[in-house]
Amino acid sequence: MISMAIKIALKELKKYWGNKKIIFSTLLLPGLVIFMVYSILGIISEKQANNTEFSTVYLVDVPDSFEEKVMQTPISIQKATREESSDIKQRIIDQDKSILVIFDEMFTEQVLMGDEPNVEVYYNSVVSSSVLSYNQVIQLLSDYKDEYCRSFTINQDSNIHYIVKNEDRMGKNISSMLPMLIVTLVFSACMAVSAESYAGEKERKTLVKLLATPIDRKSIVLGKSLSLGILALVSGLSSFIGAIFSLPKLYAFKGKNILEIYQGGHVALIILDIFSLAILLVTIMSLISARSNTVKEATTTLSPFGGVAMLIGMTSIMQSEPAQSILCYLVPIYNNVQALYGILIFDFSGRDYIVMICINLFYTALFGYILANMLSDEKIMYS
Who is most buried in 17, 238, 315, 349, counting CB within 10 A? Predict the structure, then answer.
């Protein structure tokens, strides 16, 4: 059964790969949509950033040469003592827009002796003005190092010196929209290929010929579901790739992209999440498509469910963290959104992720079994 299903899947993929309309809608369009949406938001954010006031930068044990350099910029500076730094750190944690820069006590002497003193820069990465000032301070420190041939490190221990780490900030920003967009675009891709796969073949009378062969119905369902799931997965990956290229512009991470934030393991989990969603959706939609006589009828029936999928995808926008109850991961589609949201903000449970995959596979197998039996019903298939 498996070998026959693979043959059918390859045949289906070859058929769809030759359809330019489907290739555009599943491979190119989702990524372009994500890229355009996030790029436009990036332009808007940049304009807003230009009107944002810079934070006050508190300097502790600052060398005179660096203080003079900062005074040549629009940045507002204020000297502080080490005793005052604890209070300033707490204010930053409480989302004050200040920046705190702490030089080693013997900074100049250490540099002259050939040592590498450290400079600590504290900021809050969820406050836009704090981020803008932080970026400018880092640039000034880099220029200072080059101009004066200074040898020192900046935030040597990043886990301490970032009040909110860069990856947390990027993940939370991505999570507000990306799950909804991926679910919506994957749904659209699934609807297009599912309607064509069954209702389209019924309309052209080619499905009847396939069913007249001695091929097991389960092999047909498995083969078609695999091919359609792969096409929908491509749509989801296209969306993610669009995000990779557009989000650095949106969040102004100079020299960084998503792949520097999300490691290979995270990307693999995201791909598996999208695939489990895709193959479940195409199996459910194939049931509706198989009962329809034309592509138009199947599309008309499936279209209203797109709004439901979008609403489910939007649930992550209204949450500060992914669902904690394991019961939430028993609900198809919603469990994909919650798992994807958790991965993106680095706050997901391996247990919940495994439950999500198992539940989706269970429902896929269940609906696949129903579909296989439906293909044997002459009243439905030959109507």
Answer: 238
